[in-house]
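tool_call predict_complex ligand=NAP
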Amino acid sequence: MKITIVGCGNMGLVYARAFLRYNIVKPEDLLLVEKNEMRKEELVQLQIGRVVTPSDPAIGASDIIIIAVKPQDFSELAPLLRKVLSPATIVLTIMAGIKISLLENQLQHKSIVRAMPNSPVEIGMGITGFSANKEVSAEQIRKVENLLATTGRTVFFEKEDMLDAVTALSGSGPAYFFYLVKSMIEAGEEMGMDKAVATLLVKQTMLGAFHLVNNANKSLDELIKTVSSKGGTTEAAFGVFNANGVGENLGKGILAAEKRAKELSDSR
Ligand SMILES: NC(=O)c1ccc[n+]([C@@H]2O[C@H](COP(=O)([O-])OP(=O)(O)OC[C@H]3O[C@@H](n4cnc5c(N)ncnc54)[C@H](OP(=O)(O)O)[C@@H]3O)[C@@H](O)[C@H]2O)c1
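tool_result ok
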């Protein structure tokens, strides 16, 4: 397989490394396009692919081109890519909030897949929601899925609109958990614990809770019940959570993130 990655910043490099780790591509078949001179130099030193310009005709022979520049940099890049793209190439974009129709127009290209990964892709534990236009065949979707799965799990959505919900739920999602973990650690410190001890207790609790959600044959309500007894400590905590609408407000926050994702993609 021949792959080009355009924009080899944080995410571009994550994909380059993941593809090589899983032997999906050989370094000589991995083309890297990067604008930042310092980054370009780093890529040359890393020897993970061939660093080329966006107008290099070799890009035209790629099976897949991944666009991983910032959304605001795409309009400058599009006319250059348009010249070298060949019709058989699949364009895979991870740019937040740039719709498939915009890529179709600016690149004058038919086969487009749009994906929304989240930050744990960096350690192979991400989840990526993705969608494609009608020009992309089931076989091509499987090909793209294999690539995305090198960084974690994937979910395909028939409707591109759902990527706004993906952005709000799993895209921004890591930050929601960081916020919860931070609040719990701060509570530990308020009760007189060392930060390091509170951090250990909270992190291991999060890990254990995750595995129970995944492996215990119980619903979330049942799992909450197993930790709660009448007149006990968990009930006391939930009394405050419910009185302050914590769960409800968390839901409202996520809906606000979805609304913002829609606004951003409508403005581009
Ligand atoms: N980070 C995440 O967790 C995450 C999650 C989902 C989606 N995304 C999407 O992933 C994309 C990349 O994010 P990132 O965090 O990896 O950004 P980043 O670190 O800034 O990487 C983008 C790289 O592309 C370079 N670039 C800009 N214009 C270019 C051009 N015309 N040709 C070649 N290279 C060019 C940039 O150089 P300069 O620095 O010189 O501009 C930079 O090195 C964004 O569109 C973002 O929406 C990111």
